[in-house]
From TrEMBL:
Keywords: Glycosyltransferase, Transferase. The keyword Cell division does not apply. It comes from the Bacteria. GO terms for molecular function: glycosyltransferase activity. The lineage of its organism: Bacteria, Candidatus Woeseibacteriota. The keyword Transferase applies. Residues 6-130 form the Glycosyltransferase 2-like domain. This is Glycosyl transferase, family 2. InterPro entries: Glyco_trans_2-like, Nucleotide-diphossugar_trans. CDD domains: GT_2_like_c (cd04186). Belongs to the glycosyltransferase 2 family.
Length: 295
């Protein structure tokens, strides 16, 4: 089956990365689908990213935010105007290798497939597990065959547009400005019975955290740990696992009293989190214990 492809690239002060990677994105995407659209969503950059795009890539669709809104909101803006059946999400620091789409698209002939991760050189599929009361993840080994994965990378993956819409896109309200949003999206899809796959033959090179590394490390660490808590409070609907989480939370706090800052930061979004948790309880079809034991 032939699918219409849309590529969505978020950008914030990434002129150098666009100049480095966008030619390859456009060339390799059009080699698969000559009618594909490439959309760059600029998140209120202060550099000349938008000017560069308009002067050098007139066929690329450029959408500009008037204020900085973070990763999830930026990607969502692109997804919502995209016309493709399949949405390729690429960070501006991702360089696709020749024919990067040819091996992933056929997976979508299975109507239960939600998303497929590209193979970032040096990384395999993703494991997810529940340890010491917390949902955690790590990398599986690289291999030559496709593999089920815990989550699909929001900066180097391809998603079924109809399912993105059904699941209400990335949760920009809860996880902005960054981190855990793609794990949240993937987990919500998996709990609805949809499949997540890692495809080793579809290769990209990802210069990780080219934008985020410019942010203060302490602030970044706080956001990462806060969003981990929000992910658990929103998505883990098993009563047994929530009890284990609360015990693990108290143990972590007793060992690291400074962790109270993380808890307070998460509590500021508790009302939003609990509202979204009700949706997960209502719409989920697969229990947490099964999902977190499959990998």
């Amino acid at each position: 089956m032939k699918y219409k492809i849309s590529v969505v690239i978020p950008n914030f002060n990434g002129l150098d990365l666009l100049a480095k990677n966008l030619v390859s994105v456009v060339t390799n995407t059009l080699s698969y689908d000559p009618d594909a659209e490439v959309i760059v969503v600029d998140d209120a950059s202060k550099d000349d990213s938008v000017k560069y795009l308009k002067e050098n890539f007139p066929k690329v669709i450029v959408l500009k935010h008037l204020r900085n809104r973070g990763f999830s909101a930026t990607v969502n803006s692109g997804i919502k105007i995209a016309r493709g059946d399949l949405i390729v999400l690429l960070n501006n620091d991702v360089l696709p290798i020749n024919n990067y789409l040819h091996s992933v698209v056929d997976h979508f002939n299975d109507g239960e497939v939600f998303a497929v991760s590209f193979h970032e050189k040096g990384y395999g599929w993703a494991k997810g597990y529940f340890k010491d009361g917390f949902v955690q993840h790590s990398g599986g080994v690289e291999s030559t065959t496709s593999h089920r994965t815990f989550w699909v990378n929001g900066g180097s993956g391809i998603f079924r547009a109809s399912m993105l819409k059904k699941i209400r896109y990335f949760d920009e309200e809860l996880f902005s400005p960054f981190y855990w949003e793609d794990i949240d999206l993937s987990y919500r899809g998996a709990k609805r019975g949809w499949k997540l796959i890692w495809e080793p033959k579809s290769c990209v090179i990802h210069e990780h955290e080219s934008t985020i590394k410019k942010i203060n490390q302490g602030k970044k660490d706080l956001i990462v740990q806060r969003n981990q808590l929000l992910f658990i409070w929103k998505n883990i609907t098993s009563r047994t696992m929530i009890v284990r989480h609360l015990k693990g939370l108290m143990l972590r706090l007793s060992r690291h009293p400074g962790y109270i800052r993380i808890i307070f930061a998460a509590l500021l979004k508790l009302e939003i989190c609990l509202r979204k948790r009700e949706i997960e309880i209502k719409e989920s079809k697969i229990c947490d214990e099964i999902l977190l034991s499959e990998y």
